[in-house]
Amino acid sequence: MPVVSTPATLKPAPAALDNAEVLRIRNDFPILGRPVNGHPLVYLDSGATSQNPASVLEAEQEFYEQRNAAVHRGAHSLAVEATEAFEAAREAVAGFVGARGNEIIWTSNATEAINLVTYAFSNATAGRGPAAAQQFRLGPGDEIVATEMEHHANLIPWQELAFRTGATFRYIPVDDDGGLRLEEAEKVIGPRTRVLAFTHASNVLGTINPVRTLVELAHAQGAFVVLDACQSVPHLPVDVKELDVDFAAFSGHKMLGPTGIGALYGKAALLNAMPPFLTGGSMITTVTMEQAEYLPAPQRFEAGTQKISQAVALAAAVNYLQETGMDRIHAWETHLGQRLVAGLEAIEGIRVTGPKAGSERIGLAAFDVDGVHSHDVGQFLDDKGIAVRVGHHCAQPLHRRLGLVSTTRASTYLYNTTDDVDAFLDAVAGVRKFFGVAK
């Protein structure tokens, strides 16, 4: 008879992360043990670049020590082993976001991934690609839609595509608190919309946007959806199939991986219809002196020597995140994010952008200190060993809409404790007094 699981035999769900486990996690990250300016390092800049566990560093080193060779080229043993490791990494990263291996294209970062899509559309507009590429052609009368909260990487490439093709660029505005105005989205997204590009989670506001709602609006008009998943894939469970986006971009260095590698997810049928962006070796089938024929995706978009060791290391990062548990990571960061926002809101002279304490957000908070420039705030915190991000965070239009020039941003990850947050809040509470703008 088949064995039927009962509550007594089911494997218990892992316990939620707490400070004790996070302190053990921190031991896996060599850099977190170093002092900065005579203080223990409090790293609150993972929204820009996360740190690497030892397993990721070792994976890249082991590749170079044991199987360093070009992939998809040589027939010798090292080349075969390198290719197997490279493609196994693709499968691992694809599985992490609910995709298939042939739907993941390696890029240098998310910026390149989004540019890949825009230039492929531009090439299709110029008449390049198979017959199916006609679906990507843009011209006068067509509209490309983004949002007012976008990172420049998901804004400027679309502006440039509009310039190249004659399409019109439009955007969904935000309200005074930075929230996406969904009632306006229903007006902006219309029959002429060909592309909707938006961020899953804002790198300034901490807002988590309603992906399914926006996807349904766009698909109802026959538009393609491009998701900036840089601040979501590292921090919460993401299944691109469930979200039904057409393309999604994310970066390795924000999810415990190395710099120099990112990924573009695309639905297989769309990728195989798109003309290539970069051309050269390793992405072709036949070349004559007059023309070339191209491989299917993903190799079609991976010209030249690839990011082999970085891909292997990114797979190790994905493994680390999966072993820890994305649900647990998201829950812990939500807790830290609420602690950040509530603490900042309680400090006089602080304006926090994005959702208020108690509202859903990812584990980051960007804020303005009345009377003190963000660069001075960042230097003050750095003197105490606290690393944060300052500036406009590659989101000038959003800051301008909020009436701000720049902000200071603290962003958490799975290796941050409540003590990190409290040390940060204690330091911020002294900023205005230090600079003489409060008693």
From TrEMBL:
Taxonomic superkingdom: Bacteria
Cofactor section: pyridoxal 5'-phosphate
Protein known as: Cysteine desulfurase
Record EC number: 2.8.1.7
GO BP, sorted A to Z: cysteine metabolic process
Family classification: Belongs to the class-V pyridoxal-phosphate-dependent aminotransferase family. Csd subfamily.
Gene Ontology MF terms: cysteine desulfurase activity; pyridoxal phosphate binding
UniProt keyword annotations, A-Z: Pyridoxal phosphate, Transferase
Substrates-to-products reaction catalysed: (sulfur carrier)-H + L-cysteine = (sulfur carrier)-SH + L-alanine
UniProt key word Transferase: yes
Signal peptide annotation: none
Domain Aminotransferase class V: 42-424
